[in-house]
Structures are given as structure tokens and as C-alpha cells.
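To fix ideas, we reproduce below a protein record of this kind.
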Amino acid sequence: MYNFENKKIVLPKSNSFKISETLECGQCFRFEKLGEEKYTVVAFGKLLLLEENSDGSVTIYGADENDYKNIWENYFDFVTDYDSMKEYLAEKDDILKNAIDYAPGIRILNQEFFECLISFIISQNNRIPMIKKVIKNISEKYGKFICEYEGEKYYAFPTPDELSVADEEGLMSCKTGFRAKYIIDAVSKVRSGEIDFDKLKDLSYDDVKKTLMTIKGVGPKVADCVTLFSCGKRSAFPVDVWVKRIMYHFYFNGEDVGVNEIHRIADEKFGEYAGFAQQYLFNYARQFQIGK
């Protein structure tokens, strides 16, 4: 449900969408905070401005009704019933209920595949501020200019063809570090059709993950992130340091277990909703420094 008026999209107040909680939970990197619940977002070659109003509704600037229906409704996953999903998960697991109650406004974004893939390759052994900086550098160097807003110039993330001109030296100048060679391999495999999003999205979760891991430098965690955030595989359960800590702390009595065992428990407890559970748990662990 939304209203379109004067080139603005107005969304009613929702217990399942908070701008800050959705953007700052570690799943995306092309956003800037301008004020309290006021953010810019760059995605699909476009710039959006989102702002929460005094009554809790959210106004989206920079999108016409056609773009909203064709891009942003799916990007923000507004077609999914989060209220029912959260109720289901909370009833099954008290720990997860606390994580959901802490940030009930998280939604999983459906991101553009190529940008998501390169972004999570960059994320390896990296902090979020630096990930954002590297992606911004790559966009400014190789992507198309979108527009200028309040003195800031915004660029689209480059397409595979645009990024194919980048060599290791050029990517290193964007502060990619050792990840440059992985990015080059990813670009090559996407351009050759070896990694084809249109084919991937129709595969099973396991097959998508295996295919992505044929890219140099893409391990289980990066592959899981891409399957979850761009391929729509909501049973994916990315395991990074924070997810390990909260799982050890709450589900294994502090015992250091293997990633396969974490995945087994996640599948057993959360099933097809494991990806949603991961986002609530990851955010909760990071905010409260659980297990650090």
C-alpha cells in the first residue's frame, strides 16, 4: 500500500520497515545518512532519498510510480509479509524474538546481482566504512554519473562491461587491496556467461552457492551473502564473525563449533526463513557486541 503524489511515494507507517534498521544492518553499502531517519540510497543506477515523517510514514523522493512498481517495491521487499514471518520465528525461538524485537524494521533488500557480488568480494576482512569507500571509489572511477545532490556527486556502480576495462593496478588505486584479482575473475566469469544471473536465480540454493564459489576468492560466506541478498534464496545463512559469536553464545553454550554445525542448527531451527533470522541475529550481535 502506498500513495503517489507530486512525484513522491508515501508509504504508511509500518512495524516492519525502518529506514535505518534496513540500511545499517550490514547487507548493503550504497547509502548515506543525512539526518534522523533520512538517507540517500544508490541502486540500479538511480538515486533515492528516503525520509521518515513525524507520523511514522516514509516518503521516497526520486522515484516515479513506474520505477516504484518495477524496481523499488521489489528492492525493499515490500511484497513479503514480514509481520507473519516475524511472528512465526519469534514463536519458535526466544533468542531470535529478542533480536527481532530490537530491530523489527529490518527488511532484506533484493539487490542488483553484479553489484552485490563485487560488494561482498570487497567485504572480505574489511570494515563497513572501508567497504563503502572502496565501492564509492570504483563507482566514481568506472561507473556513470547519476546526478548531484546537495553538493555530493553520485555515480552508478559499473556494469560488467564497464568494469572489464579495470586492471589490477586500477582496482588497487580504488583501495581494493588483495581483492583486486578476485574482482577481475568475477568480471570475467560474468561477462563470459559462466556466471549468469538469469540462470542462477532458477537454481536451488545449494547449486547457486556452488556456482558462485567457482569465482576466485569467493568462499561460503560471500556466496551465502550473494545468494541471500540478490538471488532470493531466503534459506541462506551467511556465517561471519558476528553470527559465529551469537550462535556460539546462545545456541552452543559458548562452545566453538564448525560452520557446518552452525548451518545445521540454523536449517533445523529456522528452515526456509534462515536468511531472515540471520539478519536479525547479525544485527543484534553487532549492536550489543555479543561474544566479543
Q: What stands out?
A: The chain has 15 helices and eight strands. The mean pLDDT is 96. The longest helix spans residues 128-142.
